[in-house]
Amino acid sequence: MQIRTQPFDKWQYMMHLHEMTPSRNEGDWRITSWAVYMEFSLWSLIFMALSGVYLWLASRPGHRWAQICFGAGTAIFILFYAAVR
Fold first, then answer.
1. What is the arithmetic mean of pLDDT over 22-44?
2. Hey, where are the domains in the chain?
3. From residue 4, how far is each of 7, 17, 47 by CA, in Å?
4. Mean per-residue pLDDT for 14-34?
5. Which residues contact 60 (CB under 8 A, 6 or more apart)?
6. Please, which residues have CB within 8 angstroms of residue 39's CB and are 6 or more apart in sequence?
7. Alpha carbon of 54 to those of 40, 44, 58, 78: distances in Å?
8. Is residue 38 exposed (0-12), middle (13-18) or buried (19+ Cβ within 10 Å)?
């Protein structure tokens, strides 16, 4: 048996941190606390985006700048998703 270690580059390291969730029990309290923090952050970001769309639609659905920003943000998200997929 041979054990080889390969250091992560920055991209692999960030992807590894992003993959950690509380369901993966690593045993170390630091990794578990990071996983809980990441899970909370992701759900907070989703809630923030959805509540922002709701507030826009509830208060000013015809506001031109809001429509432009929403369209541009959606287009950028789709382009980014296609680029990294």
1. 78
2. 11-84
3. 10, 21, 42
4. 71
5. 66
6. 21, 22
7. 21, 15, 6, 21
8. middle
Report how many helices (DSSP H) and strands (DSSP E) the chain contains, helices first: 3, 0
In the structure, what pLDDT confidence band is assigned to residue 20 with cuts at 50, 70 and 90?
A: low
3-state DSSP percent of the chain in helix, strand and coil, to 5: 75, 0, 25
Q: Which amino acid is at 79?
A: L
pLDDT of residue 59: 87
**For residue 63, which phi and psi values (nearest 5 degrees)?**
-65, 120
